[in-house]
Amino acid sequence: MIGWLTENWLPIAVPVVIFLAFSIVALWVRGIIYKTLERHLNKARWQGSQFIIQTTKTPFFHWWLILGAFVAIEVSVLPLPAKVLAARILGSLLVISLTWILINLTEKLLRFYMGKLEIPSSSTTLAVNAVRIAVVVVGVLILLDIWGAPTTPIILMLATVILVAVLAARNVLLDVFSGFELMRGELFTVGDYVKLDSGEEGYIEDIAWTKTRIKALSDNIIVVPNGKFTQATITNYGRPLKKATKPFHFYTRLHLKELTGLKASNLAELAQILGEVPDSVVYYHTHHFLEEHQYLTPEPANDFALWVDDSIGDKALAEKLASIDIFEFPNIEVLRTRIISVINEYLLTNPNSRVAPEGMEFHFIKSTSVILPTAYVANDLREFIQVLRGITIDSLYFHVFESRLRLQKGTNDFSTWLQECLGEDDLANKIAKLDPYNYTLEGLRSAIIQLIEKRIK
Amino acid sequence: MRSEVSHKSAIKIQDYEPIVGKNIIEELRMLADKLSGKVIQNVNSTFSGGGVAEILARMVPLLNQLGVDTRWDIIQGTEEFFEVTKKFHNALHGANEKLTAADFDLFREVSQKNIGDFKSYGDFNLIHDPQPVALIARKKELGGKWVWRCHIDISNPDKKVWQYLRDFVFQYDAAVFSSPNFAQQLPIRQLLIPPSIDPLSDKNKELTSETIDAVLHKYNLDKDKPMVIQISRFDYLKDPVGVIQAFEIVRKSIECQLILAGGTATDDPECEEVLEKVRERAAGNPDIHVLLIPPGSDIEINALQRAAAVVIQKSIKEGFGLTISEALWKSKPVVASAVGGIPLQVKNKLTGLLCHSIEGAAFDLRQILSNPDYARWLGDNGREHVRQNFLITRHLKDYLLLFLSLDYTSDLIYL
Questions:
Q1: Are residue B77 and residue B218 in the same domain, yes or no?
Q2: A112 near A47, Cβ under 8 Å?
Q3: Which comes out higher in pLDDT, residue B146 or A403?
Q4: For residue A133, with 0-12 CB atoms within 10 Å meaning exposed, 13-18 middle and 19 or more buried, which class applies?
Q5: In this prediction, does ipTM exceed 0.90?
Q6: Residues of A with CB below 8 A from B402's CB?
Q7: B338 and chain A: CB distance < 8 Å anywhere?
Q8: Fewer CB within 10 A of the terminal residue: chain A, N end or C end?
Q9: For residue B23, what is the nearest residue in chain A, using CA coordinates?
């Protein structure tokens, strides 16, 4: 044995020295590299840096030892098959180590960042497992390559499976990637009120991997795939609005037409009977056109003007009657007086006005209003808009026209509530100043909604 | 007395949602809820034939679907009795009918039998037209609210008949008329509830272009030449000869064709006479087509209205004239006389054009035929006008409101 060592000391010593030299250099290089790395990463204040340092510091030394062993074996006098076998073993060890380290590192990073985003642990575990599988598959493929096994068919098969899976799950993937985007909280966060251009709206209740839950004002839960948010136009109204001291209860008003049996065939009769009929008759003939012809705009004429034009054929008086601005009058009595005075003034200078042809007389009709509460209630501006969009035009009509003039409240119900229960004086004034007679009812609805939307944006 | 309780109908109340909107149907349900537990009893003289039976056949099932218990009874009468009530009907319209004491006795006698047979179960009794009007005699005994639904024009009635019938009418809680100019001053409440069309009926539903073409082909009409159409019974009061005269004025300057389509009443020999005169007047003019349409040809009438460039109704006297709403619902521009219920449907220059003479009708037809954009604007307005005011859903709402309002006297009713 001693003799053999004496003869072969040099081929043995050289690889051993090289291996030992690599071990010593490894310790020295690791010290320098990791000190420098720590300094730079600390400057960058990246919280993930600690994971990299902790996870790779010990394995880094092992990798140098493997490198040292590889060089030592290469310079040794071992036969070529032994060298090849040793290189494969060392290569495999390196791949196993790298795979292990990569799995550890990605797991730590994923758990750290997903924890910060408050993503449920089940989703995190799912992601970690996906990464583990991907890294192990790559590692196994490299090992097979090292040991000379044919990897091309396996890679092709894997690529095909992945391609099919990606195609099949492209929507899910879109949802997942969109979910990452949403979780960053730049578009909206939980608690915000959002509205999509496709009509869904409500408070964001939860943002998950693939879906976001929205709670509508009706308490219905709307589940929206995350991918939809990347394609839709979203309006984010932010946090809940101020609650009213008292909710606004929406009513509706339907009306019956009641015949009085009274009719006029000339202007003098028109003025005389108009002075005697109840307010509900004056109200009917100055307002029913709004409801029955609400698709026509702008302000349609009152019945008196239309009758004078069509049946009496007096365009000048018809024009004067049509130009009476109903919005100016605080109650029906004043409006009635004005209409009568316009007719009487005209009769002073035109006493011989025409008589309506038979069958074209003016029939006095009374409006009987039936007022009912609806199921709709609003507690804040957002709920108010939501309800306002869906109520019937009868309900809108009641709160704007009927309340102001017929119930003599002086202004519309919406302005009163905005002022008294929400302190929204400016908005209340803007709505009160809208002349509702200049709009179709649908136009009026839009105008009010626009004013409120502008306020809460 | 025969009864019918109808809940079944191929058409459901929710089928109207796409046409009038969900909230209108919600509103109907809300009103119907307020009448929960109440029974509405309709009484008229027939289950089939005529406008009243047609509208009840549609409304009764819909009211029941809404949850309002609505029934329908008819009175019994002999052929002679209905001949007398037909005379009453004509006399109330202002016609000079010869009614004898025996006629009044017969009416009284049959009415007495019906009064005795009348089984009341309604909280609201809705009595239609003059035939069952005498049932009001049981009001004190049976209680409930009683409403007389008058579908005819009684503004200028024969005095003798009206004096006889008004004693019954005045005992009702309210009367309902279709148009303000059908009514007169009464000591009871009078409500205005115009009739309506059903957008889902054969007469008004959407048709395919193939169906329309097939009807035009059947009647040998040139679909490429603008059509002016009047659809109504051949009757002097519909002035078909006046329509031909107006058309002849228009035809001098505009390429178009006239279609006069309608039926004749088997019990009215005058119709045959009018048809003959119309044919004589139209003879030799290849652009005038006189079509005798058999009863029940609703799809054909629908197709002709949809094929029209303009619909005319140049009546001298008219009832409510629902053919106007049918045409407007099809977005057709309309030229019509300002008589009967037509001015309610045609707001001059907004939803159609009103005329008062042959020359006026010709002028209006020219305006429409020469200005397609104006014609389209009038037609579109007309359809919206009908959607809001003359569809069956509005009719249902008015009836529900009527029953709900009977316990109140104020102009403002809070429910």
A1: no
A2: yes
A3: B146
A4: exposed
A5: no
A6: 256
A7: yes
A8: N
A9: A392
Q: Give CA–CA dist B38/A54, Å, rounded.
A: 82
Tell if the CB–CB gap between A261 and B184 is shorter than 8 Å.
yes
Domain match, A193 and A212 both: yes
CB contact under 8 A, B401 and A254: yes
DSSP class of A243: P
Q: Is B208 helix (H, G, I), strand (E, B) or coil?
A: coil
Using a CB-CB cut-off of 8 Å, the residues of chain A touching B185 are 261-262
pLDDT digits (tens, 9 = 90+) for B334-376: 999 988 899 999 988 889 999 989 999 999 999 999 999 999 9
**pLDDT at position A120:** 65
Q: Is B187 an interface residue toward A (CB < 8 Å)?
A: no
Q: Which residues pair with B2 in a beta bridge?
A: B74
Whether residue B348 lies within 8 A of chain A, CB to CB, comes out as yes
Contact A34, A11 (CB under 8 A): no
Do the beta carbons of residue B248 and residue B258 sit within 8 Å?
A: no
Count CA atoms within 13 Å of residue A207 on its CB side: 29
User: Domain check: are A263 and A400 in the same one?
Assistant: yes
The model's pLDDT over B201-229, given as tens digits with 9 standing for 90+, comes to 999 999 999 999 999 999 999 999 999 99
Distance from the Cα of A355 to chain B's closest Cα (Å) equals: 15
Give the domain CATH number at B103.
Answer: 3.40.50.2000
What's the confidence (pLDDT) of residue A418? 96
Identify the domain boundary among A154, A171, A188: A171
Q: Which domain holds residue B135?
A: 2-196+391-405
CA–chain centroid gap for A408, Å, is 41
Domain assignment present for B415: no
Cβ <8 Å between A371 and B356: no
Quick: pLDDT tens for A108-163.
888 888 777 666 676 778 788 888 888 888 888 888 888 888 878 888 888 888 88
Q: Is the pLDDT of residue A2 over 80?
A: no
Q: Do B413 and A368 touch (CB under 8 A)?
A: yes
Residues A438 and A311 in one domain: yes
Is the domain of A113 the same as that of A214?
A: no
Same domain, A162 and A116: yes
Residue B41, φ and ψ in degrees, nearest 5: -115, 115
Q: List the one residue out of A128, A240, A116, A112 whose CA is nearest residue A183.
A: A116
> Worst-scoring range by mean pLDDT, A141-150, A303-312, B77-86, B290-299?
A141-150
Residue with tokens 């202004």: A411
- Rounded CA gap, B334 and B229, in Å? 10
Given pLDDT bands bounded at 50, 70 and 90, which one contains residue A299?
A: low
> Which residue of A252, A255, A257, A259 to mutate against B (max B Cβ within 10 Å)?
A259
Residue A148, domain extent = 2-171
A243 domain-assigned: no
A47 and A180 in a common domain: no
**How many domains, in total, are found in chain B?**
2
Residue of B nearest to A406 (CA): B412
